Amino acid sequence: MQRKMGIDHTQRRKAGNIGEDAVCGFLVRHGYEIIKRNFTVRGGEIDIIAEKADIIAFVEVKTREHGSLTSAEEAVDPVKQRRIVQTAQAFCKGMLEPVCCRFDVAAVELENGRVKKLRYYVNAFDASMK
Length: 130
Fold this sequence. Notes:
The protein has helices at 9-29, 78-93; strands spanning 33-41, 44-52, 55-65, 100-111, 114-125. By secondary structure, the protein is an alpha+beta fold. The protein has a single domain, classed as Trna Endonuclease, Chain: A, domain 1 (3-Layer(aba) Sandwich).
């Protein structure tokens, strides 16, 4: 298990939950229905799966403390994108009808345990393998 300097797993999970809760609230306020949180299959996880107007949004949430050395957006690199796409494909296998999907990214910035800023990127990447 990798550890980041100064932040243990429990603190990261707590920060991640704050970020995910904020993004769920944002999505609901914008007319989305939350279908699933933390959908997990072997090799991948999707933080939030939401639906609006017959489009399923697979949302990757990255939460960082204000002043972090790397941005939340940088963390969703091509390797992470491939894992998300593969996990989304596993989710869609169980569907009876074809669906329109997209991949969104939410970057949440915390300060003293509270959401300072939330940036939401619609269709942040596509399913083509880079």
